[in-house]
Amino acid sequence: MLIALIVLLFLAAIFVFFIVGIYNTLVRLKNRYENAFAQIEVQLTRRYDLIPNLVETVKGYMAHERETLEAVIQARNQAMSGLKQAAADPSNAAAIQALSGAEQGLTGALGRLFALSEAYPDLKANQNMAQLTEEITTTENKVSFARQAYNDSVTEYNTYKQTFPPVAVAGTFGHVNNAELLDFDSEAIAEAPKVSFN
Amino acid sequence: MATTFYQRQADAKKNSTRLIALFVLAVTLIVSSISVTTWLLAENLPRGRRVQMTTGSGFNSSSDNITLAALTGGGALALIVLGSLYKVFQLRRGGGTLVAESLGGRRISSMTQLPEERKLMNIVEEMAIASGVPVPPVFVIKEDGINAFAAGYSPSDAVLGVTQGCIQKLNRKELQGVIAHEFSHILNGDMRISIKLIGILHGILLIGMTGHMVLRNLFYFGGGSRSRRSKKEGGGQIILVILALSVVAIIVGFIGVFFGNLIKAAVSRQREFLADASAVQVTRDPPGIADALKRIGGHSDGSRLESANASEASHLFFSQAVWAGIGGLWATHPPLTERIKAIDPSWNGKFDSSSSTTSSNTSRTSQVTSGFAGSAQGSQTAEIVSEETSGNLRSTTTTPINAIHAGLNVVGEPTLEHQQYASQLIEQLPPTLLDAVHDPYSARAVIFCFLLDSDQEVQKKQLQAIKAQTGDDFHRLVRRLQNHVDDLDVTKRLPVTDLAISSLRSISSKQYREFIKCFNTLIKADEKIDLFEWIMIQVISRHLKPQFEKIKPKRESHTALKKLQPDCETLLSAISEAGNDSEQAIQAFQAGANSLQELSLGPVKGNQSSLRGLAQALENLSSASAKDRRRLIDACALAVEADGIITWQEAELLRGVADLLDCPIPPLLPS
Predict the structure, then answer these.
(1) Can you list the alpha helix ranges (DSSP code H) found in B531-647?
(2) CA–CA dist B357, B490 (Å, integer)
(3) What is the nearest CA distance from B118 to chain A, expressed in angstroms?
(4) Closest by alpha carbon to B174, among B66, B289, B30?
């Protein structure tokens, strides 16, 4: 009987290792996607910092398009507060969704601004404007690269969480919800003209 | 400093032996105390109960009790071994990153714009370039105490962790001292023992942890069955035995904790003085690190950490992270006062509780003196560097580097000059390029630019491949960066690569696969692999690959050089053929071979010593002992020097070879 007890204890120990292993993997994958979010945060912040400069430059030429400019500024501010909330807790799906929405709005507003600016040849010739456009495009590429890395790590986390055996214990360990993918592309943006200044 | 890099590596190894001895002692004590307790328990159980209990199982004589004791002991031993093995394997896979994450670390992005984080990253980048190792990922830990650590198996998978308190409360000089201290742990091989220690001790600490857990569960589930004890005496007995066993496990667990901490203390304490001394050597600013220590002493949280996992990793840190035990028996670090006195003998014994902005006076005065000496040397280096920049990327400049032997004597021991060289190198990079290497998106472009061929036809092919695989926008970025990269001095290519790799570590595995695909296409474009391409492949597969592909960490071994003779020949031939014609090559080979006389080496004919063979040879050679590897690098240096002219190609190859042999050498300073 005592041998049985020892064997039992031994098996229990192995079981515990196994569970601890799952727990650690969950934590590691969660850390990874949260770190990936930090990368997006840096790029998005840079993008939001560029927009007031852009509006300032455009203002002189496009005085009649005040509404568009205001829409851009508003969308930018909304996206910025969305980013702040999402950065505070990247595992909060609602915050990530809100950021996705705000970003889609901003991209749409920017797209309209760039489309309108096509009608102002003076603006197109402006050195400052060309530089800003270039910078915004580059930053957008960087954002989408960082976003891809984030989405990859989110997918990895979600997949691991949904497979067996982790799925049996993930909830108990506080990994209840799936992490949310960041999706900045919507149909509205697909319609919006692409940034083209060259 | 009297001891050399190799000596310290050897000391570190001696420490491993002591560690194992202590571990065996601890395990023996734990296992025997468990066995003895079980035996005593079985012998002294009330007679009536024992009969009850043993009728089923047949344990009724004292020899059976001994068997029982042996079995329990065996079970405990198995548990310890299993626990240690589990943790060791887990750490093997996760490395330093795992340690940092288990402490709640958040990785600092290489392109961070927060001033405090930027400052820290700049310091780390400078120090990495000065030491000739890739820039390690840096993690911030949300703790108010002032502390930092380095963790990993080798320089290429090392990570640094720094507490929030450390970033906020220390000024640049002090932070630099702390980072230099941690880098010396990376270079001295302390890190490797430290991370092993976490794994091995896990098993010892596990017994106590299991006891706690069983006891808790027993109260949880055992409540119901206890009422039925009178009816089922046997079941009650089991619970009684389990209860006794878990109490024993907890008591034994204390033995584990006691020994665990003792082992950590024994292994880590004296290494801290060494790391402090190395830090002073790099920064040549004793007040910097002394002030950091004083600030810890003056700060209310000191260097204490709150995280529950901190005790497991306490020996990794810059300063005492958990309770030091009665009389400092468990202290993983020497007392602050002793460390400060060792650096600053004139210290008045007062800790600094002021904030970092109002730095103490002692540091100010010495800043002036060291600043003075530093600026004199700085301007000298700057002159040479600006001369060098005229050398085009692909031209074969033949600048003599007289300092090459000086360079070798500082393997793993960067000095202030290297640190200054590194900070200047970063400062002089065009801002566009510096921005690009800090960002994973454009860091790829910088690496691709390095691979672009000078031949226009091949280059066109390469650019087309980039366009096809990564899209228009990225292609344009490569074109834009190309000019900056072409203007870059040859000597800066490897350091810039090191910076870029550190950013690339944050891409996802999918993005990594795409990157490697394009990387390989570019290299294969001209259907031959030149020296620089070869080094790039080695650097990437050594410093980036392990992050994304499963690679077994290298085992420590000491194969005798005699057994590696063909590999020695391949290495020396390749080195002597780089930048030499065939006649010079033979001379160069002889010069190198003479220093390894007992091997009687002969040169390998041209095509056999191809770069492909070199990679394999280096892989084999890395199993030699640290001492033998140093002799090999010395031999290579002699071969390189043989004709009195050292080209940058030779120097680059030498640095690459030293890196692959795990003996990072600081950048060769122009003389």
Answers:
(1) 531-543, 545-548, 565-577, 582-594, 611-621, 626-641
(2) 40
(3) 12
(4) B289
Closest among B621, B501, B636 to B567, alpha carbons compared: B621
| Among the partner residues A13, A31, A141, nearest to B82 by beta-carbon distance | A13
Cβ atoms of B440 and A149 closer than 8 Å: yes
Helix (H) or strand (E) holding B127: helix B115-131
Pinpoint the alpha helices (H) of chain A. Answer: 2-59, 66-88, 93-117, 121-125, 127-162, 166-170, 187-191
Lowest model confidence (mean pLDDT) among B300-314, B380-394, B554-568: B380-394
Structure tokens at B122: 């700049």
Strand, coil or helix: what is B232? Answer: coil
Question: Chain B contact for A142, CB < 8 A?
Answer: yes
- pTM, to two decimals: 0.77
User: Would you mind telling me the total number of residues written for chain A in this entry?
Assistant: 198
Q: Which tokens is B117 given?
A: 């984080």
Answer yes or no: do B242 and A5 touch at CB < 8 A: yes
Contact yes or no for B650/B535 (Cβ under 8 A):
no
ipTM surpassing 0.85, yes or no? no
* Predicted pLDDT of residue A133: 87
Amino acid at residue number B666: P
The SS3 assignment for B317 reads strand
- pLDDT top residue among B664 and B504: B504
Buried b (16+ CB within 10 A) or exposed e, B322-344: bebeeeeebbbbbebeebbebbb
Instruction: Give the separation between CA A132 and CA A25, rounded to whole angstroms.
Output: 43
Return the closest-CA partner of residue B563 out of B608, B621, B630. B621
CB–CB contact B510 A39 (8 Å): no
